Amino acid sequence: MFASYVDKARSLFVARLPWFTSPEILRQYFSKYGIITRASIVYDRDTGRSRRYGFVEFRSRSSLQQALTEQPHVIDGTEALVKEVLTQPSEPAQKSGLADEEKQI
């Protein structure tokens, strides 16, 4: 899962995305702020549908800071909630097998 090995110092949490937003769209959108090392969307493992949030990891902290400064972010016609990743999921949730799947590029 992306959140289990994310570099928190260089990563964004992106929520309120349209259900059809892909990791490629996240990568394209945020690449204007700098080099993206990873982009992913979280999908429900039972339905395969987007959970409407994802993560973007930049190569540099300065790119992340620029993306945070320049808000709002409208992605696929919807204003997204963009925040810095501050914490990782708890260990029990990861081990339970209930974690959602992610597709990344």
Automatic annotation (TrEMBL):
<feature type="domain" description="RRM">
    <location>
        <begin position="10"/>
        <end position="92"/>
    </location>
</feature>
<dbReference type="InterPro" id="IPR050886">
    <property type="entry name" value="RNA-binding_reg"/>
</dbReference>
<dbReference type="InterPro" id="IPR012677">
    <property type="entry name" value="Nucleotide-bd_a/b_plait_sf"/>
</dbReference>
<dbReference type="Pfam" id="PF00076">
    <property type="entry name" value="RRM_1"/>
</dbReference>
<protein>
    <recommendedName>
        <fullName>RRM domain-containing protein</fullName>
    </recommendedName>
</protein>
<dbReference type="GO" id="GO:0003729">
    <property type="term" value="F:mRNA binding"/>
</dbReference>
<dbReference type="InterPro" id="IPR000504">
    <property type="entry name" value="RRM_dom"/>
</dbReference>
<keyword id="KW-0694">RNA-binding</keyword>
<dbReference type="InterPro" id="IPR035979">
    <property type="entry name" value="RBD_domain_sf"/>
</dbReference>
